Amino acid sequence: MLETLDAAAVRRWCASGLTALRAHQGEIDDLNVYPVPDGDTGTNLVLTFTSAQQALAMDLGTLPDDGHTPHGHALRLMARGALLGARGNSGVILSQILRGLADTLAAVPAVRGRQLADALADATTAAYAAVARPVEGTLLSVVAAAAHAARRADSDDLRAVARAAAEAAAHALARTPEQLPELARAGVVDAGGRGLCLLLDALVEVITGESPGQPASTPPARRAPVTAVRESGSDAYAYEVQYLLDATDEAVNRLRAELDALGDSVAIVGDGAGTWNVHVHVNDIGAAVEAGVVAGRPHRIGVTRFADQTAPAPGPQVALPDGRAAVVVATGAGIAELFAAEGAVVVPANPSTGELLDAIRATGAARVVVLPNDPNTQSVASAAAKEAHGLGIKVSVVPTRSPVQALAALAVRDPKRRFEDDVIAMAEAAGACRYAEVCHAAREALTVAGPARPGDVLALVEGEVHLIGQDLVDTCTAVVDRMLGGGGELVTLLCGADAPAGLADRVRAHVEGAWPFVEVQAYEGGQPHYPLLVGVE
After folding, report:
1. Known PROSITE patterns for this protein (predicted)?
2. For the chain, first and last CA: distance in Å?
3. How far apart (Å, rounded) are the C-alpha atoms in residues 265 and 417?
4. Distance between CA atoms of residues 54 and 77, nearest Å
């Protein structure tokens, strides 16, 4: 049993935590409640923590000359490795939890109970700050409960505090279905929270030498139909404003209050060195930027019209003559070729922070725009942009949610414009492109369009199921009709790897007959899972 948390214990925790995540990877992946085949939280957590362990393995105990303790140095290595290897929103949040622990414990001579409690509190703050719109009933609720219980234990006994945190996390995980109705209807708990409980259990075992013996938090074997909702932007505010800000802590505290009065989804995350990442949803763009000017020095300003948004390795240097480049995340050989033809560096789907950072650096450009093409990759892209900023590279993330939006954004690039103006134009073009996905249901679910059963054809518009059918071609033409009913001049079709022969031709023929003034562009995308991706501009 340990009285304090030393560097050796940190390394054992990282190894045992990774073992636990790997053992339960499939279980956590299966906690996905959405009917399309995209549940990969367990995989993302494993990959993120693997990167943390690799960072520890590459350093065999050397200490930098910065006053940090051996355990603090080990925690910083873990946090840094997790950040560079973070995949998906769950991975990014986990990396921030580790960062909060490292920042608090780095210079603490001895980590006992009260020090661990303080670190968990700071880890919770960092986790919430990493999310633009925190949702209870998720990983955030679980880490908050662990931190609260650790503080409530009010003890220097490291074992007692660790046990209290792990037990509270397990109980908070069990309550997540009460906070998110879709979890309750599915009969499952939150996937990210489940992963954190495994890591806290591993910490208890390292400290005490005993298994924590928590109440079982695995999901029931039977899954009821679920009403699933994907996160989307605020309905009350039309724009998303983001910028980096060089400012003092006091100025940032005032800025938070000002932005809270202007809009919602306020998130301000600092790097500990005076640079902050500012995010807010507003209707008054100028007021949000002006508030940043008053607080300090804003830079890398990005504006996205939010109300309208409802495979190959990185190539050689592709910087344009003016020192700009684009990095695009994509899956499917055809889609990758389309982006490469537009002069972009293509990164395979579900990249880590480090992989995106490598691609950004490989461009050789001083100013880079990143197109993530997936809501789950946006946090990773933002983390990579922040890391690139520290290397002197100016990076803006245009929050594209589909490859068809990225094609629309790249089509309006103009090197004659200022970089900031070009990014805004690309964001507007992406936001003006409505997108749809057609796939087969992977599981039973109750969607906003009605009940779906495995094998049904689902047509999702802006991430929500709008149509459920039995015939693939009929469903594809029906969703295109529905989208064009709201207006449009150009339809882009990307056929997937499993699309039947002639699918694009049949959809094109339908559009030409029913919508004679609409142009249709069709490409072989080669993406998995989705026989057809549709964009309407």
Report:
1. DHAL (PS51480)
2. 63
3. 30
4. 9
